[in-house]
Protein 1
Amino acid sequence: MLEKAFYGGKKYWGLLAFLGLLIAAGVITFLIQLNRGLTITGLSRDVPWGFYIAQLTFLVGVAASAVMVVLPYYLHNFKAFGRVVILGEFLAIPACFMCMLFVFVDMGQPMRVVNMFLHPSPNSPMFWDAMVLMGYLFLNLLIGWTVFGAERKGLPPPRWIKPVIILSIPWAVSIHTITAFLYSGLEARSFWMTAILAPRFLASAFASGPSLLIILCLVVRKFTRFDPGKQAIQKLAQIVTYALVVNVFFVLVELFTALYSDMPEHLHHFQYLFLGSHGHDALVPWMWTSQILAVGALVLMLFPKIRQKETALFALCLAIISAIWIEKGLGMVVTGFIPSPLGHYTEYGPTFPEGLITIGIYAIGFFILTVLYKVVSSVREELEAK
Amino acid sequence: MYDAGKIILGIVVFLVLITFPFWFTPALGNPDYRPEPELPAGKCVESREYMVHWHMDLLDQWRDSVVRDGNRMYVSGEYGDRYEMSLTRTCMSCHTSKEKFCDRCHDYTGVDPYCWDCHVEPKGQ
Amino acid sequence: MDESRRNFLKIAGCSALGAAWGIPVVRAIGKALQAEPAPGAFEGKRWGLAIDVQKCMHPDVVRACQQVCHSIHNVPQIDNPEEEIKWIWSEKFDNAFPDKVHEFTTDSLKGQPVMVLCNHCERPSCVRVCPTQATWKREDGVVMMDMHRCIGCRYCIVACPFGARSFNWSDPRPHIKPEIDPEYPTRSRGVVEKCNLCAERLAKGLGPACVDAANQVAGGEAMYFGDLGDPHSEIVRVLRVRHSLQRRPHLGTQPNVFYLV
């Protein structure tokens, strides 16, 4: 099946070449980071996690969101998703891989990553995060390849794959819950010490992931002969809308607890985030942009007529992805550190090398995604021709 | 077969490249060269044969014993003597020069242990 | 591709993965080491420190403590405050004890410098989160760092409620001033470090260097070091007599560094 990826038109190879350039830039910058250390990033003693971990947090959500197509199709026989499930699974694979790459480039001693496996530490959420991410990557590879391989041969998938698919459903929820547990069990960081963090992660994942999937479906329809189907796209749009309602609700609920209780421990972080504090306000414009985009997109998504207009849907999905990328990434991760446990306000902004490495990793993800989607569309075109 | 000339040429090139480590030194290098680390007087914590083969593992075990178990005194298996388990203070109190001892074999075998990123080497002769 | 060739490659791949997992197992079954503690090493059940806040407020005391600690442990002096590495330093009382200051706190405490360091907590959150057990709590109470195992993920820094840990953002060696102490290793870039309660001195029957320095400069009874597990030790007697604080006790980490006010 993979041989389909070696044949393509100018646009296909052009895209891969462009991504290849970005990957090269990222790799070279990473080698510089290996040599000089993480000093080339904007991270600091007070803000030890930033852009890289923010991408991890966002992408785990995208990976988990495959469950939003798998569950309706396999558990509830929602036939319209039949042609789209593989796209969801083949999105989860590069998303998972990118998560692992972002952890890898964030480490001070990446060559020692094997220590996590030589010295397993069940007390650490990070250990479990690594395990479940690897497991989920493997699951999606197995499921995607087996089911799609069967489709290509014109056969029903083998019976043993069904329980594996069912397993992937709670597993998807678990990868994002465990990522949330990285943050929500730390008594040192009052901004994250909230039970609602895991539900918030899941809600934002189910809003941003399917949004990305909608965009990918529209792109696939434009550039290949494979049409995911209007019904599937519309159902995804409905899912995004509901998830976004829950996400906005959760944000408001968090704001209420912080504002009404008036507890400095909780209030300080929200104040810094939305209003600025002690003369530091780097994240304020970002947060307001994110919230306006989210609420604005939500209001518009509530109208079926707007959802059904695919140009509008495309723009709204972009808005939703941007809003959640900001809110979950920079908004959540960085704000946890400001103010620090000692009450200091040290701001953070990613540096240019940090950005290049990030772009390089995203390019690797999109490269894998392009290859996998090319296989899917080519095989489907071939089947349709018969 | 088709393209027989190109394929056979390709196989020959491949074989030459893959056996490179085996023929390069006898043909173009110095096959009789052996690294000569400068040995100080006296005896080491264990016998020479043992150290040549196991010094890496010994140092790993010393590291775990000192750092993780809190035990700093080594009892020599060969001689029964007691030594403090320390690269800098014990090993390098006799092997005072990294270039004249450690590097001799490490450079020859192309090994680059990162011990000295942290452990301070004495400015020995 | 031919079916049997595919199957062969699949099996070969899985075997290689499986063999790779077997290697650490084989190495673990190695020769056991004969080792024992150094002669004269301190033995304790629960090491702790008590710091007299007023006596240690004087800048000479803080400077002396930091100077000796940082020099005998090769702690680098990084100019960029965002990337600095410090094992012991002073913070304003308001920052070290945010739950203990109010509008009318006495000026003898409010805004005054207090010496802070790793608390070697009874229930350390840094140890809980480390994915490789590169940091762990020793039986005698010291929260240790294994620089060989640390992967530099900085999760421990994230989890520490006291800001006690520092990361090596670049190679520290050029920044070790005035010169490297050969008796103790340095760190490499990419690992986390913090106060180790002078574990290398405890192994020789000496107390932490900062305690000696503080008592020397402040004229005694400025810092106490001892076994909190020994009801007759000096530190326990002092803590029973004088009023003492812990940093952020409501977080439940149970710090073993006490502040005598």
Protein 2
Amino acid sequence: MTREHEIQVEDAYEGPVVQVTDLETGFKTPRGLVRAVDGVSFKLDRGKTLGIVGESGCGKSVLSRSVMGLLPSTNVVRNGSVKFQGRELVGLSGKAMRKYWGTEMSMVFQDPMTSLNPVKRIGEQITEGLRFHLGQSKDDARATALALLKSVRIPEAERRLREYPHQLSGGMRQRVVIATALACGPRLLIADEPTTALDVTVQDQILDLLQAQQNERFMAMMLITHDLGVVAGRTDEIAVMYAGQIVEKAPTSVLFAKMKMPYTEALMQSIPKLDLPSHTRLQAISGRPPDLVNPPSGCRFAARCLYAQDRCLDEQPPLMEGDTPGHLYRCWYPVGTPAGEEALNMNLRKNRTAAGLKAATAAEGVGAIPG
Amino acid sequence: MADQHLDREPTDDLDAPVADIEVGLAEPGTVAAAAVTPVPVQVELSRSKRIGVFGWCAIGWLTLVALMALVPGIFPGPGLLERSREAIVAGNFGPQSGHWLGIDNSGYDLMTKTIHGTRASMIVAVSGVGFALIVGGFLGLVAGYFRGKLDTVLTGMFNVMLAFPTLVLALTLVTIFASQPGTSYGRRVMVVSAAIGIVSIPILGRITRANTLVWSEREFVLAAKLLGTKTPRILWRDVLPNVLPAMLQITLLGIGIAIVAEGGLSLLGVGVPASIDSPSWGNLIATLRSQLFLGRPWGVFAPSLAIFLTVLSLNYLGDVIRARFDVRESVL
Amino acid sequence: MSRLATIGRRLGQLIVVLVLVTALNALLFSMLPGDLAEVNIPFGSDAQREALREDLGLNEPVYVQYGRWLGNFVKGDFGSYYRQGNVTPVLERVKSTAPVSIQLMIYAQLLALGLAIPLGIFTARRAGTRADKATNTVAFALLAVPNFVLGLVLAYVVGVQLRWLPPQGYVHLGDNVVDHFRSMAIPSFSLAIGLIATYMRLLRTDLVATLQQDFILMAKSKGISERRVLWRHALRPSSITLITSAGLNVGALIGGALIIEIIFNLDGMGRLIFEAIGERQIVAIQSLVAIVAVGYVIVNFLVDILYAVVDPRIRRG
């Protein structure tokens, strides 16, 4: 099948670009099976952006690699279903997956210094995929690479082709990485913390670039980050991950306006805001994520949650749909509901949560000290 | 020009081999960590830091070797000077009852010979490397700590010595100082030991120097200096104890290499002189190798086995030491 | 530009080291107790010995002797063997034996790299699995076996018992190509074994570290074949380490070759040195040792140059 024909057939498909159902990914270690991703489901349509937000260790990076199928084959357990354009990816061999990588699905990694080969020229790294997958000749590939560099707004693109990664600035390197990822026109782009390793001033530019490319190419995009600020206004839907599970998922505006998970609320509150007086204390979420080898039987966030009640410790809440359609969350006492308010107040009065967390009221907002 | 070797050594690995020493075995196997850095994954160490079963076996064997060297007489079996006529007549040179490792072409028991040969080989190897440890270690320590002109001179000296292929240098030394006919056994052993020692000095010197350089930069040394501590005391109490593990590791490996070198020198004709009552592992192999081509390999196998087990044990223990003390080995 | 300067500098260092090495060599041999003439012609007449002394310049001061010796050495006059009845120049013997030793070492190095690279890749890709651990253990054990022991064992098993390959003897490349390689097979392999273990483990460590780098994952995510990722991305940084190691091991290779030649009766420089020692041909020994040392220094120099060329970081100055 020629590439054009493939694209036609693919274009005919009308369903979501990615449909993930109950994806589980675990690593076998001497201590046991680390359940990095524990039953994640979502779908992503063409042209839409899904933001995946969570703190370090919540499993979002593993999720991204698991969706791509980029995990090592030894000591890794991967269950569930990942359907790309309706075709099942779980269970495919590396060889089969290689047909998708680069051409259908691509990834942009966090640190452009390490994701580019330091001893290869930029041009070579971009054209590699073009020549391998699309069979372009050296000259054609070079022309395409040039066009790509220009489209990601790299000045003096001609010169850059012959340079090495260390000769470019961080922001430019990331642009090169993006250009490389987009070279063969994938349908899905997964950006794993694309701006974390960059200067704050450059971050916006890169995110804008990603958005622009996505619009132009009508791609589906997954934007993975720990920073809520990154996903605000740039995503259609946001999924909040914690301890290997999605704990809240909603269209972006809904999430920010009507969040239900205490964890999401806490994340929101930990963002420093410009309009607060100086010397305002930063609000961190106290405590640490649970052990992924032996996760707690109840809600995984219970140990750090201000709303925690006894039920939270015993029963793990399933993903439930709220009043707004498309808004899923995993909580017995969600934020903003009468049950939730009551739970929070009770904890504040008792000055401890069901998990033993001491809840104290500070002047502006709520801070918690581990008991 | 040999200077470049120093520049070239990956800075990560201070114990990088200079000439013939093979260093370094523990590679932490990291499987799950390959693609998923943010996830706190347990790392599997392919060599644990503990001594373990093999370590104790190694120690056990080396203890046996020490016994063989010191009191060979306590081991059972025929005497060193006993010849077995029956076995020769029967034409059976291999392992048999009464001669567990076989006999040589004159009927002498090989196990006994090997056991008795331990002493000579050990004297050569241990005293040679020991000498190198003291001299090379001292020079390296001094070069690494004081730096400057002293360092340049010493390093230059090391490099010139290393510009000779090691075996050839040892060979030259022995040829010159002890190959006159009429050289006594004792003198020959001493010269061979010294030759091995001298040849090893630059290697130990460089490793010590490299480690000393690292440790001398640490703040606690600076603190000691500021307190007015006298230099010898600083070297002895602050620097040396930290450099010691690396030196120890190289020494263990070096002894193994010295044993092999003794074998090599014997094959070249300048090892410990061979006679019925003064075997060494090396000269046993040298004198009995012709037998091997006649279909009687046991003369070679017996001392070879001893060498193999000893070197293996030394290498293993050297590795355990490195795994224990090398901070850079700890992963994640 | 700066590359030429680097080479020039190292060339200068090379010359200095060569002079020092040969001087050291001469110095050592001058420390031989006894009269050189006595040693070489113990049974001749006094007149012959005096003539020899004149010939060798033994009656002159040390530095003059060294100067003469160096001058001769550079011209290829390596002195002679003084045997009862005739005087044979060392050069002749060297000309016929040096190629053998060089062949042995080159074969060993090639064999080692040829086997170590695939093995290194094999174990690196399966890092942590049983196959990997088993291979590593075997490699570790093999390192404890001296190469002459291995040579003898192989000679016995393959040469004497199985009779697949000749256990001893050398056949010139010119005489019979097949037999030449057959005669060199066991010796080269014995010499190579230690190197194989070393290179394999070195490559494995390097490769495991490289494979964990992000750019490998990125290359993978571009969908290019595993083989391509391995050879064109992963192996490159490791090649430098291998070259360094190959260079560092030349010294061990020389020592090993000497011994292997003696065991297998190969007509190489090692055998030459052995015979000279046996016959107490001091002049010959001195020259032979000097030749080997000089050769070693030059090879090291070349490896340094090669290294400077290959490492892009050094290349870019």
Protein 3
Amino acid sequence: MRKGLMAEELGKILKRLDGDADLIRGLSAELCARIKEPLTLMEVCGTHTHAISETGIRRALAGKVRLLSGPGCPVCVTSDAEIDRFIQLSQMPDVAVTTFGDMLYVPGTRSSLAEQRDAGADIRIVYSPLDALGMAEKEPRKEFCFLGVGFETTSPTVLATVAEAKRRGIGNFSICAAFKLIPPALRMIAAHPDLAIQGFILPGHVSAVIGSEPYRFLVDEFKRPCVITGFEGTDILQALVMIADQIKDDEPRLEIQYTRVVTKEGNKAALKIMEGMCDVKDSMWRGLGTIPESELKLKEAWKDFDAEHKFSLPPLEHRERFDTNGCRCGDVLLGKIIPPDCPLFAKACTPSNPIGPCMVSSEGACAAYYKYER
Amino acid sequence: MIEINGAMGKVDYQGVKREASFLMLPGVKAGDYVILHAGFAIKKLSEADAKETLRLIQEMVRVEKGLDG
Amino acid sequence: MKDKVIGLAHGSGGRKTARLIRELFLAYLGNPILERLEDAAEFPSDRGRIALTTDSHVVYPLFFPGGNIGKLAVCGTLNDLAVKGARPRFMTAGFVLRAGMSMDVLERIVRSMGEELNKAGVQLIAGDTKVIEKGKVDDCYITTTGFGALEHSKTFAPERIEEGDVILVSGNIGNHETAVLLARGDFGFEHKIESDIANVWPLVERLIEAGVDVKAMRDPTRGGLATTLNELASAAGLGMIIKEADVPFSLPVKGTAELLGLDPYYLASEGRLIAIVAKDHAERALEVLKAEPLGKNAKAIGEVRDGPEGLWLETLLGSERPLLVLEGEQLPRIC
């Protein structure tokens, strides 16, 4: 009885945090009152980019706070070579490629998974990697490969699925691991000579997994205000007030706004899964270039579930530059430019004819700007 | 979070129910609120912290109103 | 035409569909009546005012909570006539069936159609059946034509829309597309969401009887509320603004959309009416709608303005953002 009451109480609180217009407007007014000079901040995570646009916050703060989008869109930072590899997998006979929805329309060098699907390849969208595992169990004569694209929120879920596959003896299941890590990318951005970001809105759910300490270097080494933020309009505005205060006090701190979800330690079980099943390697990020120790790869012990090993995939050959066709996704991901600054934005590059992944991914900055900021 | 069966459970989101895995969240109980990602529960929501966040926000908004009044 | 091949996006009801219609269909088939691109066309006749419409139904799966392809085929057609202000009178239906389809399934579909037709007082007066070999098609596609009578002298068309007009919607939106999507079973959700398929003529009839000054009407099907309002705004040459706080969604529909990363403003309904009414008639219109069971959740959601073109949303925060026309597919095969 008591538990039921508690749950109801929490439900009510969440509802207010979600949709209370008075709170949102009040916070916005409070924020504007506290800002004396225009600020330039970065929201790292693609979900934040969309939330900031969808709630109208970006527009409401124009002129006061410049919010740049960062590289927190896993599909966007996946390299052409990696996408071409996914396409190659989809073209193999008796292989079904399973993936989250976004990857479908991202253009590789010559084609996209959507095109391959129209041409007859077995490519299936799933909501959870467990669904893909379920399919593999039901169709033992087909090989099922799951495209493991994501950050630290996603990687443990895919890895847990691989562990589950082993436990259940499902041999026709593998993953193409492409899990990237956020903190190394943030280091690169904080150290970048061309960027002048005064503070960071840090990801909410990546942090639910990794906790707050992996970001400590942003404050200690780079002296930037940081706030780990939730996804409702109230969360984002409260976080902005917190950053504004840090800047005003000239006292950069690492704070958690999203306290109801994020703890200092993160999710130990998830971290254990990542550490136990993976090693870290250098990785090529679209737009950011090679970042050392920024990607997870499956340990040798799990090679039977590693598509690279199972299908003898050749090593990735990366091009140094991605913008040979005028696409400036790389600079958008760095926060160097905002989407409208790209000459292709809304002209040659649109969601139905995307040239780069930032326009087509649901977490892409260009897609958000195209939809909400024109 | 509605019911638990080993490592899988059923979660309810605004009236829509789905199976979710609790492999990453041992110790969760029916009635708990969880964050769901790709079919996995990745974190339990803290009611105490949610309350505190709401309180802080309300305070911030009151301060603003104070300035006006 | 830039595209070399037809893609799913061309059937989504968004920008690509519009381009296909403009650049290919109208190029060869255009005429003053067709070029108006309305849900139902009024054509010249010396036997009173008559409206005609056609529709194809390819929904997958065939059965889903709240309806099936047959019920959808009937109501979808009737609604196209209703929003033109035409009382639906007759229908035709062409069936393309797959060899191997269960007779029982076909019977359930046709029985359902009969029920809806009887309820609406509409007769199906011509039909056709074709069967295709296995493997080339899904079980059943239905194409319809609808014929209705405009028993008054009013015109409901975007040209009549004026600045200050109020935008009304007859109930929660997006239920149909959500129900169909979940019925595909890809996502493993358990839910109670039902499609909202219904004949909206009774709502239209009440509005006309009450003398409400309705300027234009639509039913927000393929492409949802946002696409439909964009079409109206564009045809009227005016802008529209709706309030996030006022647009009605049922919680499970909103929740599902969030979980699946869909935008609820673009989810189709198949039993809802959008009516643009003169400002001083808005209150009366809402009374009339709410008195009908189908319209009990009717709401005023926004207004027409001279301002920036297209459809805009006033967020909870109070700032405005555009609700643009859909680029490609959100989801295929929902109607």
